[in-house]
Amino acid sequence: MRYLLLIYTPEEEGTQSPERQAEVNELYNTFTREVRSRNAMEGGEALQPIATATTVRVRDGKTLVTDGPYAETKEALGGFYLLNVSDLDEALELAAMIPGAQWGAIEVRPIWELGG
Amino acid sequence: MGRHRGPADLGARRLSLGSDEPSPAPEPGSTPGGAIEHAFRQEYGRVLAGLIGQFRDFDLAEEALQEAYVMALEHWPTDGVPSNPGAWLATTARRKAIDRLRRARRYVEVQAELAREVDGEEAGTTVFADDRLRLIFTCCHPALAPEARIALTLRTLGGLTTPEIARAFLVPEVTLAQRLVRAKRKIRDAGIPYRVPPDHLLPERLDAVLRVIYLVFNEGYVASGGDTLIRLELCADAIRLARDLVALMPDEPEAIGLLALLLLQDSRRAARLDAEGHVVLLEDQDRSRWDAAEMSEGRGFVERALRMRRPGPYQLQAAIAAVHADAARSGRTDWAQIVELYDELLRHDPSPVVELNRAAAVSKAEGPEAALPLLDGLIASGALAGYLPLAVTRADLLRRLERFGEAADAYREAIDLAPTPAEREFLGRRLDEMVARSAAR
């Protein structure tokens, strides 16, 4: 089954030292290697900070573009993995291994497989 | 309606799916309707687990079993109750499920799966026991909301109806039905596996299963409102589930510990409340009203679990209950041993409530002056602020130490925390006594 693992972490605007950033990157590289070794990797990316986000809505045929998401939240979507694993237990096991799980939260969502 | 379920020893009363010839007459003295209801209740969980195992679809399994029940109501009064009602229901429900799948043109998809299951049946009926165990772990999966785990376990394994569960937990039937629908949908759509967890997940998952069973029991045992019959049913169901779990996982000492704990608590049920329905403290209970047979069965399970030398919180709580049970025979409680068991329990499962219980045991073993500093430490930590048993225990210690003025203040504090008139009245009598004795000095 396929799952999207959404990584929600607090954004520390530029407060992280370069050493810490390098350390976090290495932790993510290790995790990505683990996922690849299980042949579970279907995709995954890190996202630019939420300050770069733009929200689009269409109402009555008119497109409304606004800066950022409306709600200010403590934890923001910072990245994701799309994984193909045997069941929810394996997805949860991998979610717990994502470095951000230690300072943020991982939302595990099954992919709605349409058609097929 | 009482359920006379014996020990669910799957080894002894495994369903043999081959022999379902009807017996000529129902049991003497039982009405056909009652016998059918009884058989259905008795076999519901087992049969349903098997069907879910075969079809991997909770709703299909439930609907098919319901249809089989309707068939039983039609045929058994005239043909007699089959010698093996569970097998009859399983076979009939299976046919009904296949009919439903055919109508929905999904039959091809599951045919391969069914062929595999039929092989399993011919090889032996252990498939059946495995299904039940898998179902317990699926229903108690941590990805489900705690209240949904309880409802789903009772519905699928306990054989309680949705209205019964709703009444037991004092929630509207619609709410409970929605809870069940959401849980079943999540199991299917989120890919919650239908299996006994692998070893590295087992301790945590088994813990979740044990907690569900314990909460079911507690709801039946402790709750003071609601329907008495339903609550008895909850206790009976929890004990039966614990028995099943022990039969399915005989090498898990904590499962045995839980069963022991439930049996020992249940054995004191009749003495727990007085004629007005007020809770009677353990030390004031009429011990002749304790159920000796249930108590000795519980004690046996404690011993069996502790012999495995892998102690855990349920075993230790059961051991403490067993020491209290021994007092029913000897007339004196071995408080020193209870303190030791609480020490061990604190090592496994540290919590301020356990510390409070330990302090109460210390006051019995060594005297109130030894326990008072322990309570003051707990109060200073602030972990149990507003917790009535803490306030009451402290007031009682001061009373026993004959520090009547301080005791009076402590009882006033406790009265402010007491939720029921009966408790306030009881504490009020103690307060009056303290005020009088303090004035007499």
Give a structural overview.
The complex is a heterodimer of chains A (116) and B (441). In chain A, the strands form 2 sheets. A 4-stranded antiparallel sheet of chain A has the order 2-5-1-6, with helices on one face. In chain A, strands 3-4 form a two-stranded antiparallel sheet. Chain A has helices spanning 18-37, 88-97, and strands at residues 2-10, 41-46, 54-59, 62-67, 75-84, 105-110. Chain A starts with a strand and ends in a 6-residue tail after the last strand. Chain A is an alpha+beta fold and 116 residues long. Helix content of chain A is 26%, strand content 37%. Chain A is flat, with a radius of gyration of 16 Å. With 441 residues, chain B is mainly alpha-helical. Among the domains of chain B are: 31-124, Rna Polymerase Sigma Factor, Chain: A (Orthogonal Bundle); 352-441, Serine Threonine Protein Phosphatase 5, Tetratricopeptide repeat (Alpha Horseshoe). Chain B is 72% helix and 0% strand. Chain B has 20 helices and no strands. Chain B has helices at residues 32-55, 58-79, 85-103, 107-123, 126-139, 146-158, 162-168, 173-189, 202-222, 228-248, 253-267, 269-272, 292-307, 313-330, 335-348, 352-365, 368-381, 388-400, 404-417, 421-439. The longest helix of chain B is centred in the first third of the chain and has 24 residues, at 32-55. Chain B is elongated. Chain B starts with 31 loop residues before the first helix and ends with a helix. Classes of the chains: A alpha+beta (116), B mainly alpha (441). The interface between A and B is small, with 10 and 9 residues.
